[in-house]
Amino acid sequence: MDIYGSILSPFAARVILAARYKGIPHKLVMPKGGTKSPAFLKMNPMGKMPTIKDGTTILFESGVILEYMDDKFKKKSIVPAAAKAAAQARLIGAIFAEYVQPAMFGLFDQTDPAKRDQKIVDEKLAALNQALNAAEKLMVAKPFAAGARFTIADCYVAPALFFLHAIVPQVSSEPVLGKRTKLKRYYAKALKNKLIKGVFDEMDEALKAYMQQK
Ligand SMILES: N[C@@H](CCC(=O)N[C@@H](CS)C(=O)NCC(=O)O)C(=O)O
């Protein structure tokens, strides 16, 4: 399977984590000519990463790709079998996809102090805090997001937490995860998990390279 994307994209990192966890043979490729080239737009008219090519199957949207991977490659399922547990794992993922990440990207745009709009920073921090409070209620963090096993929830949570730790200290002096004990426990355990820490290290390297060329 070809996964088009950079590990620096938290959306692509979701899919990379799932592929590595499930042991799906894959190759990470950057689209030649970028995400807006005619050839890439033919595969994904939205011109976004991640996009995958699995034989004749071309798919995009990270959430759709995660579900496809789990449906097609049955080994080491990332969606719990029971309906309620599956919904809970997906719900944690949705909080990060729909609320944590948009606030986080809003803050990413404000990291340059010379161009910062403090009103926007305050708004995004408030939105982020609300989303993290919701995540704190839903997370199990024993040690994975939805319980004892790695699930689809971790594919969303882990890359977002990497980015939060890279971005929030640049715009706020408050501790990134505040007093949220489950999120803090999750992050501490993630740093000791070979799969997740491996992805964090690669994201860190890619972020440093990105900042240097900026
Ligand atoms: N909803 C999409 C979002 C993907 C997305 O926004 N990817 C960004 C990377 S962080 C991208 O490809 N941006 C390149 C561009 O917009 O040209 C998903 O979940 O896959």
Q: Can you characterise this structure?
A:
With 214 residues, the protein is an alpha+beta fold. The protein folds into two domains: 2-72, 3-Layer(aba) Sandwich (Glutaredoxin); 83-213, Glutathione S-transferase Yfyf (Class Pi), Chain A, domain 2 (Up-down Bundle). It has helices at 10-22, 38-43, 62-72, 83-108, 118-138, 152-171, 181-190, 194-213, and strands at 2-4, 27-29, 51-54, 57-60. Helix 1 links the parallel strand 1 and strand 2. The relative contact order is 0.13. Glutathione is lined by residues 9, 11, 35, 47-50, 61-63. Glutathione (GSH) is lined by residues 9, 11, 35, 47-50, 61-63.
CATH fold naming of the largest domain: Glutathione S-transferase Yfyf (Class Pi), Chain A, domain 2
Q: What is the SS-derived class?
A: alpha+beta
Helical amount: 55-70%
Computed over alpha carbons, the radius of gyration is 17 Å
Task: Give me a quick take on this structure.
The chain is built from 8 helices and 4 strands, in the order βαβαββαααααα. With 214 residues, it is α+β, with helices and mostly antiparallel strands. The chain has 2 domains: 2-72, Glutaredoxin, CATH 3.40.30; 83-213, Up-down Bundle (Glutathione S-transferase Yfyf (Class Pi), Chain A, domain 2).
Layout of helices and strands:
Layout: E1 2-4, H1 10-22, E2 27-29, H2 38-43, E3 51-54, E4 57-60, H3 62-72, H4 83-108, H5 118-138, H6 152-171, H7 181-190, H8 194-213
Parallel strand pairs: 1-2
Antiparallel strand pairs: 1-3, 3-4
This protein binds glutathione.
